[in-house]
Structures are given as C-alpha cells and as structure tokens.
Amino acid sequence: MRKSNHEYTLFRRRENSGPRSSGKNLEWAPCSCGKNRAFATKRNYADVGEYLKYGRSKANLTQMEVSLALEYSSSQFISNFERGISLPPLKKLRTLVSMYRLNPDKLIALMIDSERGVLHSQLRGIE
What's the alpha-carbon Rg for the chain, to the nearest Å? Predict the structure, then answer.
C-alpha cells in the first residue's frame, strides 16, 4: 500500500499481487485523475498519542520497556502510537491503561473524538 497524491487516501493498485500483497479484496472507485483506486480515510490520532506519551513519561517508562511488556520486538510500535499514526490494538489498551495509570474514560473520549472527526468529514453532504 502506498500514499497517493491525495492527502486523504491510501490505495493499492490492482497489479499488486506479489508476495507482499495482503490478498484482501478491495472496492475500486474512480479517482479524479482517472485511475482506479481503493479509498481509505486517513486518521489522525495526535490527541490520543499525546495522552499516551504523557502517561508513559509520567510512569517513567521507555518506549522499549513498554514495547517489551506488550510483547513487541521493536519500540517503533509505541512510537507510532505516540505520534498519532495508529492506535494500539484493543487487546493492548487494558495493559497500557494499567501500566501508565491512565484514566480509561479520558482515553475512550479521545479515541471517540478522533473517529468523530473522520465520520463528520465523510458524511458531509449526505442527506
């Protein structure tokens, strides 16, 4: 998967059927540039990431310590969460909340707010 010229979309070309292909069936939609692409909305989890980084710092833990506790081999996963690129898997959230001693309601609210923004941008103009 690679980023398109459109800031808000990701796509996979049909020709991508090599060993790195996920094999998932995607819906193809015409783009303004005339090429067929599968569209996905870019998410921004910066607020969630800042809260997770704050919690880790307050707990005096390194990214590597957290990644090992979550059974990741690299601290890159934690870095991605903290930079707002992705969210931790739901299975790992309970562990993070416990390790960081975070308020689960605040984390839930931040996650919902992030998704609310995506929904608003996608549903505008639909009656």
Answer: 18
In the chain, the amino acid numbered 60 is N
Write the single-letter amino acid at 32.
S
pTM over 0.85: no
43 in Cβ contact with 80 (< 8 Å): no
Q: Which residue has the tokens 């909305």?
A: 41
17 within some domain: no
List, for residues 32-70, the tens digit of each pLDDT value: 555 554 455 667 899 999 999 999 999 999 999 999 999
Could you tell me the CATH number of the domain that includes residue 78?
1.10.260.40
User: Do 48 and 107 meet the contact criterion of CB atoms below 8 Å apart?
Assistant: yes
Structurally, how many domains does the chain consist of?
A: 1
DSSP string, 109-127: HHHHHHHHHHHHHHHTT--
